[in-house]
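Input record, target 12 of the design panel.
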């Protein structure tokens, strides 16, 4: 019985395996402009697609968004039936895509190569481009008042889709978002669109735009709601607001307020925002200030090597509120092969005008030159800081002692100085475009020691650094000019004179080795000028942070301009644009001596 059942199963299975397949249903192919090309319904769909349109931007749009093109690019498994469906839908989908770019009379069709049915072609005729013919922007509620006429005009003038402009869906959407954002940041945080409409006439290829902005009432800045204070006073935050309660709100005012708080260095994080939904009893809108305080004390230990001063160790301590007073105390001790120093600085928390009062005591012993210079200085000043500009006014008392062999000379100087710093950089840490500049002017009186006379002196200094990208290359240039103005016999302290050479001066020469030759020693000059030009680019696009560079430097210091003779250094280098700033390693040749020197430096200086 079992054997009989087995024979019956074999017979049935054999019959199933030899049965002929059912014939495929016949399909009728219509005109190429209205139906997809016929393709066999059996087997996998392997095809090519050629998009024919004159405009390359439109071709990219269709290649990126058309279903028939995206499936071809992805090489995904696709049945013949699914291919036929996509090909049939492609003309209407292409015409809809072109409408988003302002072509409302576009025509598209899919055809098949007569010699190879797997080669499909999409033919597209965009037709004329639709342009804006009429624009109507209206404002209601607070923005309709006479006292904000200037803001209304600014919003209208800033609208991108002006009459005559090509109408596209992307520009229509971004223009609406941009105008709404500018209305909100300009003083109306509850602004909203009451009506927006674009009426397109395909026959005339024109679009008529109508928009109505309901702004709500203009917000007025109110009381602060401060979160996150633990050790710092509320008054520290309040005096940096920069506005009075009841002033009209703008986003710029709050951004500047936030910047002032961040510049205090008292907080690790700061956020300032308006609370538009919460209105106080006086009709003003409260301002939320959220801060995360920095640690009360902070200590930093650094060990390193600098090609100018050799190996070094430094310890720095910062106290953000010593003795519970609204001041900062910073102390630093540095020991290196050729430079030793100590500094103590006290500075007030920023005042409402962003100024800080400061006092400092500095000690420095410099052995980098042919003389040993020991300097003790006291400064009293007032500092203004912002992201782009700094101004420092200070009085300095300096006692300088220079030792050259058996000769010892001691000088005193008191001076009033004004320093300006301007930064216009795309990045303060890793700049590639923009400039920064420093200017210093000082007037003082020096009391000479030994054979030097006493008398007045002036001091001027100017530095400029510029950055500019040129294609795949990045150029940078710097220049410095400085002069001490005094009678030749007035004993101006060595620290106030000038020496050149080193990483940030003329590479190829030792640090502070270029100056005035006197009795076989190099001493500071009363005039100095240096300059540098550098071109760099990444080694490979796969490693954009690693650059190669070539450069040429020139400059010198002298007793007077008639004695000035610049020397030249040039070479090659490697740049690593690290998260903490650019690390530079340079090999430079001094043209005067023919010797090569290796230079290391981190960051940018001014």
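The sequence produced for target 12 reads:
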């Amino acid at each position: 019985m079992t054997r009989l059942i087995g024979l019956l199963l074999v017979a049935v299975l054999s019959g199933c395996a030899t049965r002929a397949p059912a014939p495929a249903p016949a399909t009728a192919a219509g005109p190429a402009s209205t139906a997809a090309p016929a393709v066999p319904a059996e087997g996998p769909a392997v095809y090519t697609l050629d998009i024919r349109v004159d405009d390359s931007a439109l071709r990219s749009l269709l290649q990126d968004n058309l279903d028939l093109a995206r499936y071809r690019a992805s090489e995904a498994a696709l049945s013949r039936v699914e291919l036929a469906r996509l090909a049939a839908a492609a003309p209407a989908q292409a015409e809809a895509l072109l409408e988003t770019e302002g072509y409302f009379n576009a025509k598209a069709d899919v055809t098949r190569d007569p010699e190879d049915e797997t080669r499909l072609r999409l033919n597209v005729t965009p037709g004329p481009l639709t342009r804006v013919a009429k624009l109507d922007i209206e404002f209601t509620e607070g923005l309709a008042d006479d006292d904000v006429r200037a803001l209304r005009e600014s919003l209208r003038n800033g609208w991108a889709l002006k009459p005559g402009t090509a109408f596209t869906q992307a520009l229509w959407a971004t223009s609406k978002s941009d105008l709404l954002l500018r209305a909100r940041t300009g003083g109306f945080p509850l602004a909203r669109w009451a009506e927006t409409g674009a009426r397109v006439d395909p026959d005339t290829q024109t679009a008529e735009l109508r928009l109505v902005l309901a702004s709500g009432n203009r917000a007025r800045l109110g009381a602060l709601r401060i979160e996150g204070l633990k050790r710092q006073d509320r008054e520290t935050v309040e005096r940096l607001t920069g506005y009075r309660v009841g002033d009209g709100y703008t986003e710029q005012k709050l951004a500047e307020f936030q910047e002032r708080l961040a510049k205090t260095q008292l907080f690790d994080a700061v956020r300032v925002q308006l609370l538009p939904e919460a209105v106080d009893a006086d009709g003003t809108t409260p301002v939320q200030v959220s801060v995360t305080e920095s640690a009360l004390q902070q200590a930093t230990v650094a060990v390193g090597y600098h090609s100018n001063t050799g190996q070094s160790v430094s310890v720095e301590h910062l106290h953000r509120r010593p003795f519970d007073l609204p001041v900062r105390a910073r102390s630093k001790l540095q020991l290196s092969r050729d430079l030793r120093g100590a500094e103590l600085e006290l500075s007030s928390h920023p005042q409402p005008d962003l100024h800080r009062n400061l006092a400092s005591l500095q000690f420095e012993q410099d052995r980098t030159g042919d003389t040993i210079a020991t300097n003790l200085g006291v400064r009293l000043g007032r500092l203004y800081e912002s992201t782009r500009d700094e101004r420092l006014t200070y009085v300095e008392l300096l006692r300088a002692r220079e030792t050259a062999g058996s000769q010892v000379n001691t000088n005193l100087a008191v001076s009033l100085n004004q320093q300006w710093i301007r930064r216009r950089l795309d990045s303060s840490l890793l700049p590639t475009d923009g400039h920064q500049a420093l200017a210093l002017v000082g007037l003082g009186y020096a009391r000479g020691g030994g054979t030097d006379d006493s008398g007045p002196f002036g001091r001027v200094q100017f530095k400029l650094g510029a950055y500019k990208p040129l294609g795949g290359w990045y150029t940078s240039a710097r220049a410095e000019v400085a002069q001490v103005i005094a009678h030749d016999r007035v004993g101006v302290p060595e620290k106030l004179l000038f020496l050149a050479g080193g990483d940030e001066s003329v590479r190829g020469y030792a640090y502070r080795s270029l100056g005035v030759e006197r009795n076989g020693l190099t001493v500071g000059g009363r005039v100095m000028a240096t300059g540098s030009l550098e071109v760099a680019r990444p080694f490979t696009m796969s490693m954009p942070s690693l650059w190669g560079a070539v450069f040429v430097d020139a400059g010198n210091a002298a007793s007077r301009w008639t004695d000035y003779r610049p020397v030249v250094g040039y070479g090659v280098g490697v740049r690593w644009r690290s998260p903490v700033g650019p690390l530079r390693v340079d090999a430079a040749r001094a043209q005067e001596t023919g010797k090569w020197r290796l230079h290391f430096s981190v960051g940018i200086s001014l």
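The longest strand covers residues 407-425.
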